[in-house]
Amino acid sequence: DVLGRIAIAEKWLHQHANDEALLLTLGRLCRQQQLWGKARSFMEASLAVRPTRSAHVELAQLLDELQESALATRHYRAAALL
What we know:
The protein has five helices and no strands. By secondary structure, the protein is mainly alpha-helical. Helix 1 runs antiparallel to helix 2. It is flat, with a radius of gyration of 12 Å. The termini are far apart. The model has no long low-confidence stretch (mean pLDDT 97).
């Protein structure tokens, strides 16, 4: 039950608001459920806390799906530089 896992993880955010791994995990779960806006917000929040290669790649893949190629390319490049 992915929606149930999202709800639980969102509750954890209240105690761990700056946990980049939790934010990225929420982004992945939301992407799996095709909650594009929430997925993007969580991935961007993860990158704001601590830029990681995996977060840049995940966000780039999401942006590709959303047909935002130019922005996706920027995130692929950022991932390559880390």
